[in-house]
Structures are given as structure tokens and as C-alpha cells.
Amino acid sequence: MLGTRNYSKVGIIGVPFEKGQPKEGVALGPKVIREAGLIKELEVLGLDVLDYGDIKYVPEGRCDVNNMSHLGDVAACTNRLSEQVQQVLKDGRRVLTLGGDHSLGIGTIDGHVKAMQDVAVIWVDAHADLNTNKTSESGNVHGMPVALLTSELSDYWPHLPGMDWQQPMLSIRNVAYVGLRSVDRYERLVIEKFGITAYGMEDVERYGIHDIISMAIDKIDPDGVKSLHVSFDIDSLDPLEAPSTGTPVRGGLSLREAIHIMEEVHRTHRLNAIDLVEVNPRIGNERDIKLTIEAAIYIIQAALGYTRRGLKVPKGITDMPLQTFK
């Protein structure tokens, strides 16, 4: 249960998956983030980190649905991912999932809800990812996960072969968007029709990121009892901060704002799942890739307890004279 979870234990899942969108390279995201020293950086925070490795799956058979590319791969990968997320949470660890494209949110959120039932999601993204196969202009499933996950939109879908394991159990009232600035007409209609909590960049400019994340949490978890899930698309950042991603949109969050989001959610002590997706090391030059990977690691560190004020001194040391440290 939520109350018995050890906040110092973290399980990492890699999802080298890119079939939810057309650009090669995003499957390398977990590898390059790990190779940049992620686990060492988390252990410096005093965390007990266990890497569960990468998701492996066998594609589902014939899963042809109009305007949904590679549904068989998406279905099989996210099914296996849901099972793994449930296992990590069952092991008493918070779960950090490294993508891969944002279609993996289908699996991570499904697994989180199945494991802990009462879940609220903060979707940090330039895009709403609310399309269905009928409204998507591209057919790319990484633009559909929120619509697939939420119960209010379940009637808008045909039967999806291979997806019978996934039933929409998350209410759209339990989802808050932060960082939106590229929203399709249909997505805007859905946001307005259902009164979805959605803060775009104009709201960030008007209220400031501290008030935005506070309002978002209050909206989706007013009683402060839900298990929180942050699904963070690196394209929520301005491309000047994170250029190596597949669908960049100018005018996004600064890295400082993104870190503050994660610091504030961490302080709730209810953040039990984090997705970090859409880092693509095949896009951009060496400096672009380095900036993007560094941004990803800073965001993850903030989510898992790093504070810019500096780490707290362990108990028992605070009474020691300062000369001890010379």
C-alpha cells in the first residue's frame, strides 16, 4: 500500500521502443541516459537503486486497426511494461521508466493504476496526446495514450486487437497537463468538453511555475491521498534546452521550471512513478545530444530527491564542530 512504500528505493525500467512514432533513434534513450551515469547520480542521493533492465516483448499477431501504426508492437510492449511496473511497485520501490517514445505511458500508467488503484497523473508535455485513431492526422500511437487510458473516452474507440489486457481505469479528472503549446483542434474540444485540468505555456507565463504545479496537484488530488505519476516528455522543454527530440516546439519550459515541477511533486511524498521519454540521440549534433541527456538526468534527480539547496547532512553529523570537516 501507499503508506508502507520506502521512498528511498527506486526501480528502473528501460523501454527501448520507438514504434509509436516514425523517427529512428528514440529507442536508444534508455541506453544513453544510463551510460551518462544515471544510477551513480541517484546513488549519491542515498537511494537504493535496482535496475530491472529493458522490456523485451514478442509482437502481437494481426492487430490491424485503421490509422494506428504498429499496434501489434505497441500492444505487446505496453502489456509487458504494465506487468513490470506492477512488479516494481509490489517490490516496494518507486518506479522510473526510461523511454522510448511516449506511447509507453499506456503501460506505465496502466500498471500503476492496477497496483495502487487511486492514481493521479501529471502529464508534462508540449502535446496533449489525446487523439484517437479517428482524429489523428498521423496514426502515430505516441499521440494517443491519454485517450486510451481514460474511462471517459473509452466509447470513442473501436475494438483494438491485442489490447484486451488494458481497460481504461483512469478518470480524466485525475489527469493534469503542464506545458501544453501544440494542441490539435479535436484535443482542445475534448479538453473543454470534459473540463480537463490543462495548463499551457501562457498559463505558466501568467501564474509562474510554482503556482501552476500547486494548482495542478490540488485539482487532481484535492485530499492529498492519491499515488502520483509524472509522465514527462522531454519535448515539454524549449528546444534550446533539449533539442534532441522528435517533435520539438519552440516556446517551452525552461530546465529550471521543469526541475521545480519535479521538486514540488517529490515534496508530496506521494510520487511513486516517473516516465522520462522522447530523448532521441540520433537527432542533432553532439552538443545537442549532450544538452538533452543532461536535462533528462537533472529532471530525474529532482523527482527523486535532489535539492538545489544541497543535500541534507546525515543525522548525528549536525552536532559536530565545523573544524571536523576541514
From TrEMBL:
Cofactor binding description: Binds 2 manganese ions per subunit.
Residue sites binding Mn(2+) per the record: H102, D125, H127, D129, D233, D235
A GO cellular component annotation in the UniProt record: cytosol
Reaction equations catalysed: L-arginine + H2O = urea + L-ornithine
Enzyme Commission number: 3.5.3.1
Enzyme class (EC, first level): hydrolase
SUPFAM superfamilies registered for this protein in UniProt: Arginase/deacetylase
Protein keywords: Arginine metabolism, Hydrolase, Manganese, Metal-binding, Urea cycle
CDD domains, A to Z: Arginase (cd09989)
Top-level lineage group: Eukaryota
A matching Pfam family: Arginase
GO molecular function, one term: manganese ion binding
Cofactor(s) it depends on: Mn(2+)
Listed pathway(s): Nitrogen metabolism; urea cycle; L-ornithine and urea from L-arginine: step 1/1
GO biological process: L-arginine catabolic process to proline via ornithine; urea cycle
Family: Belongs to the arginase family.
Protein name: Arginase
